């Protein structure tokens, strides 16, 4: 197993008090596997990613539980040790490449940073590796692009540079946080194909964070659905799309446009994800967004229940759930 997360909690300090953004998250990722994490903005997907690779402010954040990379505990690991893990063993593809790239450094120098830290390559070898990486991510003129600054590149090109940095040292695990946000459909497809190619070539495990269920259906092996800091359902991509159980999973799928069904309007989930301060930490957190079923039986402390092999659902409310139109 590449990565194993058990009872992971992450709390942020707001106005002198800590509020949990992650509650009791349990997930794992294997080699040659793509695990998709889906949910609305504010559900805790990116917080989970930054918790894994240790990119958080220790004075404002508390992480507890266990996150093990190949049996090596990451929670509580020193900053120096995490510097050795990030880039070499775990690569990160950030959501906003323009914000992630240093505007004052040329592309080649930014890729070389990871190579300098984790390898003993000579300068000439690093230059060759930069050319190789830029070619690998589909950049047509790697020599020219290597000398450019981020602002001189298009959004798709910047995203390819971010991917080149993430795979420079051939990490076993890649975390891709919304890798196709703000890209047009053609470039989006190219980036997704590139990620799948890299995964096959390097036998890497990928955590794909997205809100695009179409991308999940195309790429993922397994799916974890997050809501309000919790995993509410997990299983294979086939189980989640053909036999969704949790009301939130079913609501997300119902809100997708479908070519084979004619509707007057798209389904919209009532309300919104609660803020950290307003988030209730007891009972079923999604119950208020299905107001027409306010008397639906819920667990006071919802647990994950196995409903099929490899398929888990939080709370028992899914057994009686129906949409208001049904």
TrEMBL record:
Q: How does it sit in the membrane?
A: Peripheral membrane protein
GO annotation (BP), single = peptide transport
**Main localization of the protein?**
membrane
Going by the UniProt record, its keywords in alphabetical order are: ATP-binding, Cell membrane, Membrane, Nucleotide-binding, Transport
Q: Which PANTHER family does the record associate with it?
A: DIPEPTIDE TRANSPORT ATP-BINDING PROTEIN DPPD, OLIGOPEPTIDE TRANSPORT ATP-BINDING PROTEIN APPD
Cell location: Cell membrane
Q: Which SUPFAM superfamilies match?
A: P-loop containing nucleoside triphosphate hydrolases
Q: Which segments does the entry list as coiled coil?
A: none
Q: Domain named ABC transporter: which ranges?
A: 3-253
Q: Which GO terms describe its molecular function?
A: ATP binding; ATP hydrolysis activity
Q: Which Pfam families match?
A: ABC_tran, oligo_HPY
- Would the keyword ATP-binding be found if you checked this record's keyword annotation? yes
Q: Which GO terms describe its cellular component?
A: plasma membrane
- SMART domains per the record? AAA
Q: Which domain of life is it from?
A: Bacteria
* Taxonomic source organism: Ligilactobacillus apodemi DSM 16634 = JCM 16172
Protein name, as recorded: ABC-type dipeptide oligopeptide nickel transport system, ATPase component
Q: Does the keyword Disulfide bond apply?
A: no
Q: Which family does it belong to?
A: Belongs to the ABC transporter superfamily.
């Amino acid at each position: 197993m590449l990565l194993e997360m058990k009872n992971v909690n992450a709390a942020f300090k707001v106005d002198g008090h800590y509020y949990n953004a992650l509650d009791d998250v349990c997930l794992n990722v294997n080699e040659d596997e793509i695990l998709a994490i889906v949910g609305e903005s504010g559900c805790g997907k990116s917080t989970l990613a930054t918790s894994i690779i240790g990119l958080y402010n220790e004075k404002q954040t508390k992480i507890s539980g266990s996150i093990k990379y190949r049996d090596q505990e990451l929670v509580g690991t020193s900053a120096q040790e995490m510097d050795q893990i990030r880039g070499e063993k775990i690569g990160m593809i950030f959501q906003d490449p323009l914000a992630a790239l240093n505007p004052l450094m040329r592309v080649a120098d930014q890729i070389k940073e990871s190579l300098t830290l984790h390898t003993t390559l000579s300068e000439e070898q690093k230059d060759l590796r930069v050319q190789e990486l830029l070619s690998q991510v589909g950049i047509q003129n790697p020599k020219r692009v290597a000398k450019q600054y981020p602002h001189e590149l298009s959004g798709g090109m910047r995203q390819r540079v971010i991917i080149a940095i993430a795979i420079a040292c051939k990490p076993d695990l890649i975390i891709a946080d919304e890798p196709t946000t703000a890209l047009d459909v053609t470039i989006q497809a190219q980036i997704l194909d590139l990620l799948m190619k890299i995964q096959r070539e390097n036998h890497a495990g990928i955590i794909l964070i997205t809100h695009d269920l179409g991308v999940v259906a195309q790429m993922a092996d397994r799916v974890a659905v997050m809501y309000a800091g919790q995993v509410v359902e997990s299983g294979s991509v086939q189980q989640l799309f053909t036999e969704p159980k949790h009301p939130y999973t079913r609501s997300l799928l119902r809100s997708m446009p479908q070519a084979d069904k004619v509707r007057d309007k798209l389904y919209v989930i009532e309300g919104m994800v609660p803020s950290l301060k307003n988030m209730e930490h007891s009972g079923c957190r999604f119950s208020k967004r299905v107001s027409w079923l306010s008397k639906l039986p819920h667990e006071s402390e919802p647990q994950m229940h196995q409903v099929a092999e490899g398929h888990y659902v939080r709370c028992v409310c899914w057994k009686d759930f129906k949409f208001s139109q049904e």
